[in-house]
C-alpha cells in the first residue's frame, strides 16, 4: 500500500468532471494514492514531465496490465530498445513527410466528401456526423485496414479504450473489448495479401516490410486504432465546441490573428483527450517523501498537468493565444505519441478549417445540452449544431 497521502474520489463524479478533484490534489496532495483507482497518481506537470522519463523506475512494461492482456504486447508497453525498434519500424507510415506527401491529401478528400453530404441537412450531431466518420476514414487509410466500415473502426476503438480503462473489472466491457480485437484481427488477415501485393505507406504495409513478427504487428495496429480514432475524433468535436462557445476566439482565427493549429494545441491542453497514462514501478524509489515499491501502479495525469497553475495562468480558461510550450497532451517522455503529426494535420489542417468554411452560420443547437465525459480518456459525447443548409 502506497504511503502517499490518500485521496478519495467519487468515481461517477470524477468521470463527469475530474478537474475539481485534480485541482484539489495538486494543491493538497500532488502525489496521492486514490483507493478507488488502486493507484498512486501524479497530478503536477513538472513532476510528470521529469518522472515519465525515468523508465528505469516508472516502466511502461506492464505484463499483467489491461492493455497487454486485452490488446497484446504493443510498443507503448515496452521500454528502451524494444520500444524504439518497433517505433522506428512504424515511423515511415506516420512521419511528417508521409503526412505531408500522402495522408493530408487523402484526409482532405474524406472531409470534402463527408461535408458535401452533410451541408444540405442544416442540423446534426457533429460528433456522429463529422468527427467520427472523418477520423475513422482517415485511420482506415493510415492503418491499411481499408476493408473496415468506419462505424466498426469507431466502435472497436471505443471498445478497446473502454477495456483498457476498465479498472473496476466490468465483465461486459471486457467482453466488448475481446469482440473488437477479434474483429480487427480478421480485418488484418484479409488485408495482408493485399498490401503484400500492392505495398503502400500504411502501418500494416510498413510493419510487414520491416519484418516485425505478426504478434507485434497485430498489437501495434490495435494500439494505433485505440488512440488514432478516439483522440482525433474527440479533438475535432471538442475544438469545434470550444470555438462555438468562445466566439471571440473563433473571431481571432477568422481575422488572421491566430491559426487553426493554435486552436488544436489549446484544446488538447484544455481538455486533453488522453487524460492519463499508467506505469508500473520497476524498482524501489523515493520521490518527494513518497516510497514507491516494485509492482506498484502509478497514473501520470496528463489532464491535470495541463491545468497546473504553476505552468499555465488561468488554466481553466480556453485561450488560443496562450503559450502552450509546457503542454504535455501528447506525453513528455520516450512514449511521446507517434501519431502526433497525423493528428495535427487531420484536425488543424483539414477538419476545422473545412468545417467552418463549409457550414455557414454554424452554431450550437440549444435544444439539446452538450455532454462531456471521461477521466482516463475524455471528450464530447454529443455536439448538436445547426447551420444554414445548402
UniProtKB/TrEMBL annotation:
<protein>
    <submittedName>
        <fullName>Cytochrome P450</fullName>
    </submittedName>
</protein>
<dbReference type="GO" id="GO:0016705">
    <property type="term" value="F:oxidoreductase activity, acting on paired donors, with incorporation or reduction of molecular oxygen"/>
</dbReference>
<dbReference type="GO" id="GO:0004497">
    <property type="term" value="F:monooxygenase activity"/>
</dbReference>
<dbReference type="InterPro" id="IPR002397">
    <property type="entry name" value="Cyt_P450_B"/>
</dbReference>
<comment type="similarity">
    <text>Belongs to the cytochrome P450 family.</text>
</comment>
<keyword id="KW-0503">Monooxygenase</keyword>
<keyword id="KW-0479">Metal-binding</keyword>
<dbReference type="InterPro" id="IPR017972">
    <property type="entry name" value="Cyt_P450_CS"/>
</dbReference>
<dbReference type="InterPro" id="IPR036396">
    <property type="entry name" value="Cyt_P450_sf"/>
</dbReference>
<dbReference type="GO" id="GO:0005506">
    <property type="term" value="F:iron ion binding"/>
</dbReference>
<keyword id="KW-0349">Heme</keyword>
<dbReference type="InterPro" id="IPR001128">
    <property type="entry name" value="Cyt_P450"/>
</dbReference>
<keyword id="KW-0560">Oxidoreductase</keyword>
<dbReference type="GO" id="GO:0020037">
    <property type="term" value="F:heme binding"/>
</dbReference>
<keyword id="KW-0408">Iron</keyword>
<dbReference type="Pfam" id="PF00067">
    <property type="entry name" value="p450"/>
</dbReference>
Amino acid at each position: 500500500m502506497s504511503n502517499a497521502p490518500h485521496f478519495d474520489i467519487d468515481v461517477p463524479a470524477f468521470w463527469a468532471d475530474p478537474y475539481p478533484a485534480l485541482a484539489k490534489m495538486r494543491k493538497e496532495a500532488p502525489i496521492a494514492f486514490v483507493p478507488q483507482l488502486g493507484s498512486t497518481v501524479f497530478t503536477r506537470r513538472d513532476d510528470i514531465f521529469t518522472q515519465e522519463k525515468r523508465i528505469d523506475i516508472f516502466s511502461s512494461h506492464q505484463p499483467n496490465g489491461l492493455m497487454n492482456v486485452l490488446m497484446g504486447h504493443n510498443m507503448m508497453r515496452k521500454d528502451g530498445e524494444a520500444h524504439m525498434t518497433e517505433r522506428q519500424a512504424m515511423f515511415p507510415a506516420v512521419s511528417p513527410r508521409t503526412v505531408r506527401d500522402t495522408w493530408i491529401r487523402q484526409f482532405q478528400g474524406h472531409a470534402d466528401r463527408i461535408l458535401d453530404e452533410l451541408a444540405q441537412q442544416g442540423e446534426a450531431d457533429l460528433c456522429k456526423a463529422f468527427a467520427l466518420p472523418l477520423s475513422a476514414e482517415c485511420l482506415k487509410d493510415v492503418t491499411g485496414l481499408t476493408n473496415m466500415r468506419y462505424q466498426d473502426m469507431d466502435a472497436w476503438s471505443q471498445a478497446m479504450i473502454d477495456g483498457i480503462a476498465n479498472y473496476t473489472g466490468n465483465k461486459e466491457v471486457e467482453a466488448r473489448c475481446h469482440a473488437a480485437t477479434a474483429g480487427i484481427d480478421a480485418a488484418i488477415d484479409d488485408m495482408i495479401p493485399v498490401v503484400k501485393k500492392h505495398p503502400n505507406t500504411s502501418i500494416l504495409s510498413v510493419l510487414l516490410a520491416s519484418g516485425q513478427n505478426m504478434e507485434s504487428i497485430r498489437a501495434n495496429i490495435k494500439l494505433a486504432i485505440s488512440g488514432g480514432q478516439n483522440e482525433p475524433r474527440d479533438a475535432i468535436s471538442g475544438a469545434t465546441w470550444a470555438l462555438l462557445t468562445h466566439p471571440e476566439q473563433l473571431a481571432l482565427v477568422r481575422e488572421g490573428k491566430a491559426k487553426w493549429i493554435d486552436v488544436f494545441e489549446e484544446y488538447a491542453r484544455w481538455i486533453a483527450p488522453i487524460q492519463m497514462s499508467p506505469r508500473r514501478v520497476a524498482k524501489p524509489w523515493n520521490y518527494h517523501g513518497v516510497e514507491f515499491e516494485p509492482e506498484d501502479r502509478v497514473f501520470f495525469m496528463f489532464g491535470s498537468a495541463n491545468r497546473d497553475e504553476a505552468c499555465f495562468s488561468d488554466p481553466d480558461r480556453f485561450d488560443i493565444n496562450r503559450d502552450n510550450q509546457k503542454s504535455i497532451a501528447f506525453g513528455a517522455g520516450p512514449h511521446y505519441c507517434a501519431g502526433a503529426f497525423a493528428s495535427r494535420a487531420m484536425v488543424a489542417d483539414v477538419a476545422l478549417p473545412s468545417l467552418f468554411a463549409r457550414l455557414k452560420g454554424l452554431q450550437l443547437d440549444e435544444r439539446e445540452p452538450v455532454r462531456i465525459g471521461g477521466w482516463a480518456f475524455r471528450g464530447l459525447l454529443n455536439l448538436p449544431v445547426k447551420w444554414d443548409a445548402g
